[in-house]
């Protein structure tokens, strides 16, 4: 179906990270599963169990493996407890179904931080606004935010024509599972971001926003919206003029440096 090509591009399918068992991708890692509100949450953990936690939240679609390379980076693995989740509806967290509402996702994902010291939360793409929601709803669990190519501005994140077509009957039933779930999230994202607009003021943690100037999936102006939502002293805005949406994997040292800086 030719529709799938633009849809896949918009949803970031084909992102350059490996898939596989956690033992194969991250040596010494462990897998954990909890039940929360009728949903299963699975995460993979690596690094130092007794250190400051870093929680990674992937975009749509995706899985914990989006951050597998970060979990093997010596500066991070030696200094942090690294936790990468399968968001509800994806990876091994499909039991209970999709949770398109940002607040519902944050509620379930917060279970991965229960009993830990406040975490540095890293969100990529749609994981960005989920991280903001998490920090607003559970401020005691969040030390800092690192938001990479995040979707923030409701005016910029309305469904595109191929999202609308893919959501129509009967085409929605012909779109493969992960893409269908991702499209369902995109269809309600603008409304969810509009609801999140008033919650930015509740975020007390410092925020680092990293945005590529050549991002064609999440428009660079989303970073401008984030800058309008928080006080200048709370925000570190790092623009990368030549980077695209996959800066997360193409320039990982930039994100790793932001994580290290956020610990201070």
- Gap from first CA to last CA: 49 Å
Overall 3D shape: globular
How would you name the CATH homologous superfamily? Alpha/Beta hydrolase fold, catalytic domain
Largest sheet: 8 strands, mixed
In CATH, what is the class? Alpha Beta
Number of strands: 8
Structural class: alpha/beta
Work out the strand percent.
15-25%
The number of domains: 1
* Number of discrete helical segments: 10
Mean pLDDT: 92
Annotated CATH topology = Rossmann fold
SSE order, one letter for each helix or strand: HHEEEHEHEHEHHEHEHH
Describe the strand arrangement of the main beta sheet, using strand numbers.
1-2-4-3-5-6-7-8
Radius of gyration: 17 Å
Flag low-confidence runs: 1-5
The CATH architecture is 3-Layer(aba) Sandwich
Helical content stands at: 25-40%
What would a concise description of this structure say?
With 264 residues, the chain is an alpha/beta fold. It has an eight-stranded mixed sheet with strand order 1-2-4-3-5-6-7-8, with helices on both faces. Helices cover 32% and strands 20% of the residues.
Would you kindly provide a written description of the structure presented here, covering whatever features stand out?
This protein has helices at residues 4-10, 22-25, 74-77, 102-109, 127-137, 161-167, 177-196, 221-229, 247-250, 252-262, and strands at 30-36, 39-47, 52-57, 80-86, 119-124, 142-148, 207-212, 235-240. It has 264 residues and is an alpha/beta fold. It has a single domain, classed as 3-Layer(aba) Sandwich (Rossmann fold). Strands 1-2-4-3-5-6-7-8 form an eight-stranded mixed β-sheet, with helices on both faces.
């Amino acid at each position: 179906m030719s529709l799938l090509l633009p849809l896949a591009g918009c949803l970031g399918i084909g992102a350059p990270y490996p898939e596989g068992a956690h033992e194969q991708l991250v040596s010494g890692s462990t897998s954990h599963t909890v039940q929360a509100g009728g949903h299963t949450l699975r995460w993979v953990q690596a690094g130092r169990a007794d250190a400051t936690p870093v929680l990674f939240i992937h975009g749509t679609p995706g899985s914990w493996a989006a951050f597998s390379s970060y979990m093997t980076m010596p500066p991070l693995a030696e200094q942090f407890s690294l936790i990468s989740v399968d968001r509800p509806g994806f990876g091994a967290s499909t039991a209970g179904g999709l949770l398109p509402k940002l607040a519902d996702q944050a509620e379930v994902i917060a279970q991965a931080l229960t009993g830990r010291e406040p975490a540095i939360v890293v969100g990529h793409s749609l994981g960005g606004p989920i991280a903001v929601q998490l920090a607003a709803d559970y401020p005691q669990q969040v030390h800092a935010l690192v938001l990479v190519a995040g979707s923030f501005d409701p005016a910029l994140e309305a469904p595109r024509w191929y999202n609308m077509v893919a959501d129509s009957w009967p085409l929605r039933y012909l779109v493969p599972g992960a893409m269908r779930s991702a499209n369902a999230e995109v269809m309600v994202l603008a409304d969810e971001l509009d609801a999140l607009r008033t919650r930015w003021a509740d975020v007390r943690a410092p925020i680092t926003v990293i945005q590529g100037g050549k991002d064609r999936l999440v428009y660079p102006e989303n970073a401008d919206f984030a800058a309008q939502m928080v006080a200048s002293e709370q925000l570190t805005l790092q623009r990368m003029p030549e980077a695209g949406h996959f800066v997360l994997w193409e320039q990982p040292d930039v994100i790793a440096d932001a994580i290290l800086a956020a610990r201070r």
